[in-house]
Here is the input.
Amino acid sequence: MIDLSNTRAAWGADDFSEVLKNEMRTVAPDLLPAYIKSAQGGMMDFNDISVSILSIEESNTAFYLVIGIFFTELIGGCNCDDDPMPVNSWGKLDITINRRVSATNFVLLEQDHS
Here is the structure.
C-alpha cells in the first residue's frame, strides 16, 4: 500500500497542493506501473513526473482527490540508431485518503495515449 501521510497531514494548509505533488513524485516509481499502463509498451521515465490536481473533496472519513499524472514513456528501437524515443503520456487517478490513517486507494479513471 502507498502511504500519503504527508498529504493527509497537510490537508487544509496553504501548501497542501505542493505537499501532494512532492509526495506523488516520490511514490511515482511504485505507483505508476501498478495503476497506469504504458501506452506503447515502453519504459516509464520517473525523472520527469508532473502532477496536476483536478478536484478535491472531503467527507467525515476521507479526502477525495482526482489528479492527472504526466510522464515520459521511452519506446525502444524507434529510429535508425535504435535509441529510445520519448513519448509524452498521462493518466487520471482517483485517490481516496482515509482521514484517521494514511491508507490510500487509487483508481485509474482515464488515460490518454495521444
About this structure: The longest helix spans residues 16-35.
